[in-house]
Amino acid sequence: MSETTPQISEQTPPLAAEPAPQAAAKASGRGPAWLALLVGLAGLGVGAWSAWQLHQQQGQAAEQLERLREIGAATETRLQGSEDSVAKKLAGLPSADQLATQRDLLVSLQGEQQRLAQSLSGLLGKSREDWRLAEAEHLLRLAMLRLSALQDVDSAIALVQGADDILRAQNDPQAFAARGELIKVLEALRSLPQLDRSGLFLQLAALRGQAAQLQTLTPEYLVPAEAPAGANNASDASRWEELWQQVSRYVRIDLHADQDVRPQLAGQSLAQVRLTLVLALEQAQWGALNGEPEVYRQALAAAGDVLDSYFDRDNQAVQALRQRIGELAEQPVVAQLPKLDNALDVLQAYLKRREAAELMPDAQAEPALEPDIEAIEEDGQ
Q1: How would you class 231 by CB atoms within 10 Å of its CB: exposed for 0-12, middle for 13-18, buried for 19 or more?
Q2: Alpha helices by DSSP H, 93-175
Q3: Where is the composition biased (Polar residues) (predicted)?
Q4: What is d(CA 160, CA 340) in angstroms, rounded to the nearest whole number?
Q5: 44 membership: H or E segment, kind and range
Q6: Residue 287 Cα distances to 90, 200, 205, 327, 333, angstroms
Q7: What count of other Cβ atoms lies within 10 Å of the Cβ of residue 302?
Q8: pLDDT digit string (tens) for 341-380?
Q9: At what angle do helices 96-145 and 153-170 cross, to 10 degrees?
Q10: Is residue 372 a contact partner of residue 353, using CB atoms and an 8 Å limit?
Q11: CB of 151 within 8 A of CB of 138?
């Protein structure tokens, strides 16, 4: 116990100096307090900022939620309208039985349309064939007209050949008899001599122009030139020759008394002779153009007689014209033309049989071919 007391007494003086450490402790305790205060303020600020951010986010979330609700309401309204329209449309749609009925009607309509298209194509094909056959008949009639009216063999050959080409393109056995008649006509026409009536007509027209320029039979006498001034010293022979030249102007002596003496033509008489020659050539033109051989030859003979009687035979122009008239007189103006009536009758019979076969059913049209084949065989025999 005695030892403890002095230790206490020794420690007592430091207690007297206690106020200084407390001030330091107080001073050191203020720093953490301010730091805690600052931390608290910072935490408070952060909390306030977080609360403000949370408030902002809640407001945005509320706006977005409101927008989503509006969008959902609009979508629901649209869906409701779509459902109503779909319901209306579905209500307007036919039922399964109606759909099946409409499907059957569509199938039947398609079948009818296909049959109609086939029938139309068949009718158009037959119509084209009928038109072609009608064209063949028309060509044959034109050939008959060309032969009978103008006797134009070349045109008739071309027309009959066209009709035969149409029948050949048909490729129908029933047309065999008609083609046989057409080929007979073609061969008969090709064997005819070539007639050029238009050429004869034009050649005679050219001869008419030459005839209008011909001179008369008696040649023109030339008046001799007068004797020069020194002719007084000529001999007696030259005087007699001069006298003979003067007398020959008025007197003509013909030593060929056995020949026919024809008067000299001049003025109106010459015009009449030329007119007679021109008229004979025009008559020959008419005979050539109309296929009248007698008229043609008689007119050319008359033109030759006029040339021989009233024009100088020694004249070169007269000789050339006389030679051309003789050559043209030998040209044929008509030929024995074949008849096309039989070919036309056979073609018309074929057209009638074809039309009747189209109107009849197929089962009845087939036996109708046998008589035609038998008729063809009879024609061949």
Answers
A1: exposed
A2: 96-145, 153-170
A3: 1-12
A4: 10
A5: helix 19-92
A6: 94, 10, 13, 16, 8
A7: 17
A8: 999 999 999 988 888 877 775 544 444 444 444 444 444 4
A9: 150
A10: yes
A11: no
49, two tokens: 């900022």
Inter-residue contact 277 to 306 (CB < 8 Å)? yes
DSSP-assigned letters across all residues of 209-253: HHHTT---SSPPPPPPPPPPGGGGGS-HHHHHHHHHHHHTTT---
Name the nearest CA neighbour of 313 among 301, 328, 323.
Answer: 323
CA atoms within 13 A on the CB side of 109: 6
Position with higher pLDDT, 328 vs 368? 328
Q: Tokens for 63? A: 């706006």
Report residue 113 as tokens.
Answer: 């349309």
Taking CA atoms, 248 is separated from 33, 87, 241, 256, in Å, by: 187, 139, 10, 17
Query: In angstroms, rounded to a whole number, what is the distance separating the alpha carbons of residues 152 and 145?
Result: 9
CA dihedral 39, 40, 46, 50 (to 10 degrees): 150
**CB within 8 Å of 162: residues ≥ 6 apart:** 136, 139
Task: Dump pLDDT digits (tens) for 237-283.
Answer: 677 777 777 776 666 555 544 555 455 554 557 788 888 999 999 99
What one-letter code names the amino acid at 316? Answer: Q
Output the average pLDDT for the chain.
Answer: 75
Tokens of 21: 């450490």
